[in-house]
Amino acid sequence: MVEVKQQEWTETFPEMEKMMNYKNQEKKKRLTSEQMESLESSFQEEIKLDPQRKMKLSKELGLQPRQIAVWFQNRRARWKTKQLEHLYDSLKHQFNVVSKEKQQLQDEVMKLKAMLKEQGCSSSRMQCYYSEMSGEETETVESTSEAALLCSNMEIKGKNHNQFNIAEGNCFNLEGYNFNNSVPLLPYWPNVPHNYQP
DNA sequence: AGTCTAACCTATTCAAGGG
DNA sequence: CCCTTGAATAGGTTAGACT
């Protein structure tokens, strides 16, 4: 059924037959390691491909300009996937750090409460006493930790994702939280134009 | 404002190569 | 033979030039 249709097509449109033969002959070919290296170093210089560079690479590497464009397109897609993976790892690590800290603080609160109980002083009385002393509203440890986590999320959402601030290792502005010990970054980062919108 | 075009993106296909 | 990788394609979006 398919063969019959194909025959009809090629008889009606000889150009189509040419194209089909061309397609059969021209199988997908892998780029040589030299071509790959050259394209890769060019990509590291600049993630975007301007027409002059495309033509230059095309001549240098003996590839069609279209092939150069396609390679850069696919390379950007791969790069973006890697970025997302690293961003995910980074956020996961930060979440673990904050969770651990929250647990430690909660443990500390439990210990302190137990101590107060031993001394025969109720926690509500102690909270009232603390409020009078500091003149501020009292907060539970849960609320402060959750607020910190919320703030960190807001910080992330507030950033322009295209700037990749988190992935580039910038610290959060959260007071009292040190996120310097996040996951290691990629060994290298290509130049991304300021106006680059993935 | 509407149209055209080039360049780009994402998703997908498919050939090549490795285990 | 199956799975992964990467070159290529399809179809949609966007920005800029032009009328």
UniProtKB/TrEMBL annotation:
Alphabetized CDD domains for the sequence: homeodomain (cd00086)
Coiled-coil spans in chain: 88-115
Chain residues forming the annotated DNA-binding region: 24-83
Key words, A-Z: Coiled coil, DNA-binding, Homeobox, Nucleus, Transcription, Transcription regulation
Top-level taxon in the UniProt lineage: Eukaryota
Domain Homeobox intervals: 22-82
PROSITE patterns per UniProt: HOMEOBOX_1, HOMEOBOX_2
GO biological process terms held by the UniProt record: positive regulation of DNA-templated transcription
Signal sequence annotation: none
GO cellular component: nucleus
SMART domains assigned to the protein according to its UniProt record, in alphabetical order: HOX
Locations listed in the record: Nucleus
Alphabetized InterPro entries for the sequence: HD, HDZip_class_I_plant, Homeobox_CS, Homeodomain-like_sf, HTH_motif, Leu_zip_homeo
SUPFAM superfamilies for the chain: Homeodomain-like
Pfam families for this protein: HALZ, Homeodomain
GO molecular function, one term: DNA-binding transcription factor activity, RNA polymerase II-specific
UniProt similarity note: Belongs to the HD-ZIP homeobox family. Class I subfamily.
Described purpose of this protein according to its UniProt entry: Transcription factor.
This protein's name: Homeobox-leucine zipper protein
